[in-house]
């Protein structure tokens, strides 16, 4: 048991999917896992363990933003022996070739967070990157299912509502595909704890095109992302 997760040792699988929304964790457990049971309800940040194609997999909500995601990722990797984490999030696209409902895999994650500046004494701009094997497994899984997976860079922002849209426009000019709020911290912690990490995101809104999925359509739009993530962690 940790400060934020009430699981007992052994309750959590070595591979964990990480949605920001704890209700997405519940939805994934109910719709994709067999024999799923809830191992934590602390702060209503639900976590479940079950099996997918016969292999144990867990799914843990992380909350929104890098501080919250870091708490759950740190405790999973440091205390519960987790070896593989895959964020299954939503994101806003900043690339014209990407559409609503598309899935993006983050090969790396730029960020405006100060967390890594603090971590590296303010002298290093650390580059948080995905695990190559996990990324390759997700590309293979998407291809096998006929899903068009976009692979490129994410931007993990500390703000959802920005006062500086010109920064996001410049990031688009520099090839960033989509904006979310957790991947950079998850990639960094996986590196620290010698684990594997990947962030997959479904596009819920398009910042350049000014479009968004209706709230009622969002859950269903996560199906392909979850299939890719589960195939990749059980490959
Ligand atoms: O849908 P999730 O996984 O929460 O991800 C995105 O949605 C939240 C903002 O609405 C942030 O957490 C962002 O990263
Ligand atoms: O962080 C996020 C998530 C979805 N859409 C955005 O614009 N930002």
UniProtKB/TrEMBL annotation:
Identification of the protein by name: Uridine phosphorylase
Keywords per UniProt: Glycosyltransferase, Transferase
UniProt keyword Transmembrane, yes or no: no
A Pfam match: PNP_UDP_1
InterPro entries: DeoD-type, Nucleoside_phosphorylase_CS, Nucleoside_phosphorylase_d, Nucleoside_phosphorylase_sf
Single GO molecular function: purine-nucleoside phosphorylase activity
Family note: Belongs to the PNP/UDP phosphorylase family.
Matching HAMAP family: Pur_nucleosid_phosp
Reactions catalysed according to its record: uridine + phosphate = alpha-D-ribose 1-phosphate + uracil
Enzyme category, top tier: transferase
Catalytic activity, EC: 2.4.2.3
Origin: domain of life: Bacteria
Annotated ranges, domain Nucleoside phosphorylase: 16-229
Species in which this protein is naturally found: Glycomyces rhizosphaerae
